[in-house]
Amino acid sequence: MSVKGTRRQEFADTFMHLVTETPCNHRVSVVDITNAIGCERKTFYYYFENVDNLVIWIFRSAFKKIIETQFAEYPQVKPHPELQDPYDDWPFYVRIETEDRFLAQGPYFKAITYHWVDNRVYYANMFRTDANSYNNLFEYLVNLYVPTIKDDILFMLGNRPTPPRTSSISLRSTM
After folding, report:
1. Domain count, the chain
2. Measured in whole angstroms, how far is the alpha carbon of residue 13 from the centre of its chain?
3. Is 134 helix (H, G, I), strand (E, B) or coil?
4. 51 lies in a domain?
């Protein structure tokens, strides 16, 4: 890992530790991170634009490492260009295709699940719904994955268009 990558990882590890140890009524700030590391605030800003960018970097760098080490032989998916992702050249997903136009994503989802489970306290705090939450990660994930999942569905359909929805099913019981 490069010096810059090592320093970014130091900020990431410190932030993750602070998030898991800090009471839920406090959002970890740049000052909290730099005080814990023992550096100036401007050092943080050399590596990240803000805390939200750090949160996204933590997620993306972990998934990049998983994909590049465990799934290098599969087609790697990178963000759609219109997303204007800060890490647009990093893979975040793999497409494990079978011969019959089926996707066998189980190994990918199993591998990334270990990351979520190993860091469950951190991610639980990332997805809190109070005023001190880090909602940008949830929104980011939706924007990142929805176009890709849509592409997966179209792939399995053989790129056939889906029929328009003509009626809705009522869940009311009739007597």
Report:
1. 1
2. 16
3. coil
4. yes
What pTM does this model have? 0.83
- Alpha-carbon separation of residue 135 from 27, 46, 56, 61, 126 (angstroms): 12, 24, 11, 19, 7
To which residue do tokens 């939200």 refer? 52
**CA–CA distance, 150 with 80 (Å, rounded to integer):** 12
In a domain, 41, yes or no: yes
The type of residue at 47 is Y
Residue 161 domain-assigned (yes or no) = no
- Domain extent at residue 27: 3-156
Q: Are 52 and 134 spatial neighbours (Cβ–Cβ below 8 Å)?
A: yes
Tens of pLDDT along 95-107?
998 887 788 999 9
Residue 124, domain CATH:
1.10.357
Dihedral (C-alpha) 127, 132, 135, 136: value to the nearest 10 degrees?
-130
